[in-house]
Queue: 4 jobs
Job 1
Amino acid sequence: MRDRSLFRITYVGHATVLIEVGGARILTDPVLRYRIVHLRRRRSPLLTAWQEQIDAVLISHLHYDHLDLPSLRQVGLATRLLVPLGAGTLLRQHGFTNVEELRAGERTVVGGVPVSAVTANHNGTRGPLGPTAECLGFVVGSGQQRTYFAGDTDLFPAMHQLEGQVDVGLLPVWGWGPTLGPGHLDPYGAAQACQRIRPQVAVPIHWGTLYPMALHRLTRTFLIDPPLLFREFMLRMAPQTDVRILQPGEHFELVRGSSEESGRRQERAHLAQPLQR
């Protein structure tokens, strides 16, 4: 039986996060391979336990580094997929049988845990000749166990509406190369987002995992610096938020304190054992 009091965040890498809350196991934008298109994964663990017994997968948009069909097949063709409007046809054509399309503002429930789709400011085209769908973020959980998964996004005016609604913010701080195109948050932009949202804890994601082949031999700074810069900006711009930098494979738990510590939380960070290759 699953522990319904468990609230654990595991950073698998890039935009892939395992959210365990209220007894549900929810996986975001799964990339569970060591190579995808022209990108490779830095040596970091990929544990099969992270993709087992998944209650739902959240897909933020159709880009290949967020919607990876082989990775979704590893999770299972019958796994429930919560996807943006316009993504369903592509997934059903590839054999996925439990696809639910959502618009920003719509809400559903996964294993008793509420999941709300929210706006994201990003390009939703699956290039070069693929379909176009909306882009989403998601808020998972209720009470004092609410997690905002931003997917890929730039700042947008309605982000202010999330203030007071988020306990943990999973915020992209970079991408997979030395430069960023439009529709992304960099470390400064992610800190601005935290000013608007005011989560208790912020976890930088979408950094340090994928890189174009051979490019990391020329420069490694884009694989290392973004979360450190994000933390520096946060100390000045949103010091009320605790920044948790997780390397791919690490997780932390937020548990309610005892009666002597009512209203407080204790946090523990752990490193997963690397996959033997």
Job 2
Amino acid sequence: MQTNSQPSKFENIASWVVPIAAIAAVIAWFIIAPEGALGKLDAIGYAVCHRIDARSFQIGDRQLPLCARCTGEFYAAGLALLFQLIVSGKNSKLPSRGVMAVLFAFFVAFGVDGSNSYLYLLKQTSGGLENIPNLYIPNQTLRLFTGSGMGIALAAMLYPVINQTLWRELDDRPALGWKQLGILTVAIIVINLLVLTDSPIVLYPIAYLSALGTLGLLVIVFGLLWIIIMKQDNTFESPRQLWLAFASGLTLALLLILSIDLFRLQLTGTWNGFPGLTG
């Protein structure tokens, strides 16, 4: 466990440079991303998702920022992290073996459905694979549910790692128990069923939750990386002390998103899905 020490010269400089870099990254994102609020969210999804129109939910004739699978994964991960923050606090222990088995089943379902769906796409877009059988015909419902299951599993594994990295004093209890997993799973199922109604009243919030969930996960990962590099792990006592790590994570996350966006835009010439992939 680290002990508190006086900030180094580098840390003092970073406390000034990082916020400026974060503001510059946000401004660059607003300039480069497509127009409109949903356009800014599209730029986030564009960095991590194929954004194939036929595999995405639609608000009228406009697709959501992420495909159905990624929508489920990232909105569920974001909500699951928020849920654990509220009910688990600084609990830092990984789930029990039984809960881990359920989470592993979510992971397997995600992998099986994703592989089957990808094979189906290859058969539709390239020749010579017609004789390879699919397990089943992929559909939006399975993409959404397996994606959201993966989101729950991802958040359940990430949350205790966050606590183990941040706090000086930890609560050595599982961050996700059976009761919490049950409540979370039921809530996600209900939300998924609402998403499948295709109501704009549901899809607009989900568009924001999925894109911001994507950005949030990247910010968390890069923020933790910053903390580890700065050798500040297990030194924090209050969320207020995390502002510099948050600003660093936001800067690095936006730089990654912008780099991928610009590369993909140069490669494809469109903010939509990859050309030629319409299955």
Job 3
Amino acid sequence: MLALSACAFCAIAAVLHLASIAAVVRRMRRFESDETEEETLEGISIVRPVCGLENFTEETLLSGFRLEYPDYEILFCVAQPSDPVIPLVRRLIELHPHVPARLLIGNECVSANPKLNNLVKGWIAASHPWIVMADSNVLMPPDYLHRLLESWRPDTGLVSSPAIGCAPGNVWAELECAFLNTYQARWQGFADSVGLGFAQGKTMLFRRSILESAGGIRALGLESAEDAAFTKLVRKSDLRVRVVNRPFPQPLGHRTVAEVWRRQVRWARLRRDTFRAYFVPEVAAGGLPPLAACAIFVGAQDWPVAGALIAFAAIWYGAEAVLAYTAAWHLSWRSPLVWLARDALLPILWLASWLGNGFVWRGTPMRVLNRGSAA
């Protein structure tokens, strides 16, 4: 009975793994319809919360001034007048007078989410019917806005994009790529393919009227994370969250193992708090549980265990390499080893998410107090 159960779990996990990769590869190769003629495109307000200086901050903020779109504005939101990023933002605005851009300083406490509090003034100041909320560490390609609009359909309430880690400066940044790319972005793309799209706060495009009809930006403070609140708001309106077929990059640079771990714990605790039914099965995610199940089944049949595990791992991680190569995501000789390390950490990460409620966001200590609130 144990051997049959192990065989069934191994088979189901392998089918889901390969199906998710095939679905995302198909999305990457799908040619989108031609963009709407420029004269019919509506204006877009890009609201970017900025806080402090990080790796590649100048490159990511500069990318917003080089978009191939006829009518857009950029609203940079800074909470504190002493923030060291302010001189950089002012310099970029002065160097690009052809792009309407403003720096907004101040903080309005409408929730326990400091990022949302920082965004309120940008929401109020936005002058266009389309809004994009984009984190400061997102690198925007020239066709950024067109790619977001390409994913919009009549039944859409929001278009989002997960972050794709790029330009890792060391092995710990490669580990973060392993979490972000062929694991988290893959499952987000697959979820959207089966009609279960989730918003991610890195990039969110929506019509202003949709959020206004739900109570405005303050409605996003009803959950611990604004993207989770937006996902639930859109679904309650019988609309869909869609994920772009080709997500946008986030350059990483140098990372420490502590930074990577804290960020993953924070996201895991937020997923646990906001979408618990989807989070619970994550304990069986990654390649190690099916590898263990494979070993149990093969051992019960008196077959060579080592050979079977090598073959299974080659198929499992080979498919992941195909996805990374096809999508032009980070791929190096260390990637298979880093993927193995990531999968070894996944059960520990899942357990750590249940052993506490605290996390730190941009230097602000926060705690998930209960389902749907944080402080």
Job 4
Amino acid sequence: MNLKQFLARKNIVITAHRYGIDALGAMAQGLFCSLLIGTILNTVGSQFGIGFLTATVVTINEVPYTVGGLASFMSGPAMAVAIGYALQAPPLVLFSLTTVGYACNVLGKAGGPLAVLFVAVLAAECGKAVSKETKVDILVTPIVTTLIGIGFAYLIAPPIGGAASAFGQVIRRATELQPFLMGIIVSVLVGIALTLPISSAAICSVLGLTGLAGGAAVAGCSAQMIGFAVMSYKENGWGGLISQGLGTSMLQMPNIVKNPKIWTAPILTSAITGPLATCLFKLEMNGAAINSGMGTCGLCGQLGVWTGWVAPSAEALAEGAMAIVPTAFDWAGLLLISFVLPAVLCPIINAFCRKIGWVKDGDLTLS
């Protein structure tokens, strides 16, 4: 049996789609169900004085953890298991990835999510390669998966984390120095990533996009989601409005493939709202970085901004962020950037695109 046949038998598919879309998207879901949910629970508990959300559930190494704290603490294992699930790893491999994910996230520090992505993929594929190849599979598969995962985590997680953190730092600093230009670039690129079948949330988390850069990312994602939702209301009605506005603009990808020009209005809208967010409203994302790439999906982007106002994340605190009492101007900026401007600008720009023949009736209809 040659290598190609062996890989096919083991369901090891080495493609950009499998790793860059399936695994990355699953990682974002794992991060969402741990770090993001934990952050939301902690914030809601502290701001509204909900006892069971602020009470210490367990103390580990003299560190007290709430319900939300425990959820955030388990983000590494959650991401690794989600990646293994996307790669269709067998049970023994999947369960072994919990240890691998925890090690990667700790060793990778600020760049933990990116380290988890690389190492969990390597460990999962190696585990799949040896799975059910011996009579003592229950020993061999977990040992191989764990040792390879921990070994790679020890070797490459720190430099990966350092590189991701440094690149994110460059983006954040560049946005502070050139808020207009970087407001456009970050808003447009992260917004496009949100609509493409990749994970903008994972990208923002990997790069640690907080501060003004995070605010620009929120603007770009919201422009895509609210923009597509409102400008396609004629074709898709209330169902399309909600599924795109609070779900994902990725639903439009089949239509974008057929006619890329329908993307013009959301992209131009994000190019407008991005610099408005950074230059006029000084909109910052000081909650968990994953929120920067969520847009209006479940209102996570907006909840992240609010969380950053009242209880900045550790990443944001490290960058000098402080808790504030939001003013009416802050709230107006968040609402205008997230909802009002995309809902107004995108249909106007799209109407011009229709007038010149770039967009026709039915081009935005969801299947």
